[in-house]
């Protein structure tokens, strides 16, 4: 999604006769890549001639529940939405509407999130300016927090001209959006541009930003994102430096042919810094550190490398942060890279009792598809979602905040963004997940990072987050849930995963001062254990294993079912007794007893077998799980011991981690970790260094 032609976004305009100088808050945009899966995020269609309409078109307003009910009750039936002719979308900031047709801009990227501006900024009125050519009708719509649609104002247009709508924000306390619909008359109507503006003097500041992008062996993604910034004039105007923190073995600097023209274009605005692999927290901390010590940037935006940017999103994030009443973290939403119209979540909080991510909006859903249920017909999307944090796939952080509360926890991956949001909130810096600011990222819905090497980081970092932020005695439910998860993994024959979890619990007990020294060594240590566990040794094809054989099939051929909740304690005790004491069937070590697809690999099903072939979440590999009673006995003993110790020492550990938090997230602590983890010298570097008469290490270009 590159900007082949980009128009700089005006930060301030003075319209004669219309009051104080205005600053653009948001402008109408259309996609660079006009593919059908992306278009519904920008514009929707209705054709008066054919009668085909989206379920929410018109001045009424549908319901996502109604639409879903129709779909369930009538097979695959859904009210058809007329397709937008791709030829209409040849421009970035204008749209041609064919005669006798309607186009709605009540979409994710073009509706104006009025309630967010009402809640977090001093703006209490906005001005919508629409430039048109041709004849037709403009209707400004608004919604309430309940998702009720209301007509705000309507005008007939003809010829070439400009329509200005003064729109109050006073009634958007809990939610609601503004947008406009355009109806063409007997001839085509062209929307030449539209901007939402507010009085410029309401902005707290007029800032610039740097980017902190951590990358590891994803060169093509990274180059594409650099190219997007290099080709967008509006972004370049706001950008101070793009810091690319390269922690991989396949490095950007190895691709000089592709990198050189981008470096020439951006000059000092592109800096590639090579360092050892100290995870996302280490990479983002390095970029945050550089941006916050350079002294130029008002904000630093943490970005994953493997995203596709909607460049306007970064401009909107900076603008919103400028207008925010106080320094505020501003995050972009994440859309599914492989299913572009699907939104991951609308906003997340941390459940304080469980220390687990949860949806910010009651009634909200994960994986919402705007192609099936548009914004205007989905009531829960109209209620403002107030969040605790935003994922660091793209999140703006004021450098003032970084200097005040420090850098990330040195936790490699997992929970670094959530913990930072909670820490910032305690210090008076809220987070806003801003609608209309979004990026596309590979979804982890079809992954399972609770199994395998990442389980260590999930377990350790969740417990640390609880120690730092839980308001409940002994972390609420965290220790109890952790123990239950140990049992689930053990009866599922996932011994490698459990080994990582046990290591995590022991490392938490060591205290906060062990985090920095181990950040560059823990991953190799965990991965080095994989060869010792059957469940961690995978092959690409099921046929590479012996054929399935089972001596005793399920009783009466009935499939295994999940135990009833009331019976779960008794069922668990019986299952554990079997796991601990009952010998495995001899043939199970020679032949797997069954094949279980990943979707069916539930703990209560796996517990019924002595061995099973189990596929991974991506469907690319198969592992042979084998029950080992001795392993279960040893690991269960370790788990019980660790959790008793966690429970006994919780208050002591809580005080230790909280007292050390500012020290281990400080610039000084991270400076030492950066120095201790330079980019490793590779064989090719030695050869090149030998030819040049010297060696190479970590570098900044």
Morphology: globular
Sheet with the most strands? 10 strands, mixed
- The class by helix and strand makeup works out as alpha+beta
Number of helices: 19
Poorly predicted runs: 1-6, 48-81, 694-701
Query: Separation of termini?
Result: 26 Å
State mean pLDDT (0 to 100 scale): 90
Helicity level: 25-40%
Strand content: 15-25%
Q: Please tally the β strands and state the result.
A: 24
Radius of gyration from the CA trace?
28 Å
Task: Give a short synopsis of this structure.
The protein contains 19 helices and 24 strands. By secondary structure, it is of the alpha+beta class.
Top keywords for this entry?
24 strands; single chain; alpha+beta; 32% helix; globular; disordered C terminus; disordered N terminus; 23% strand
Give the topology.
Elements: E1 22-27, E2 44-47, H1 64-73, E3 95-97, E4 101-104, H2 114-120, E5 125-143, E6 149-157, E7 160-168, E8 178-199, E9 209-215, H3 219-230, H4 233-238, E10 239-246, H5 256-266, E11 270-274, H6 279-294, E12 299-304, E13 307-309, H7 311-323, E14 329-336, E15 339-343, E16 348-351, E17 356-359, E18 368-369, E19 394-398, H8 399-405, H9 416-426, E20 431-441, H10 454-469, H11 478-491, H12 495-510, H13 515-518, H14 522-528, E21 538-539, H15 568-581, E22 595-596, H16 603-606, E23 611-615, E24 622-626, H17 629-664, H18 667-676, H19 683-692
Parallel strand pairs: 9-10, 9-12, 10-11, 14-20, 22-23
Antiparallel strand pairs: 1-8, 2-4, 3-8, 4-8, 5-6, 5-7, 5-8, 12-19, 13-20, 14-15, 14-19, 15-18, 16-17, 21-24, 23-24
Helix pairs in contact: 3-5, 6-8, 10-12, 10-17, 11-17, 12-17
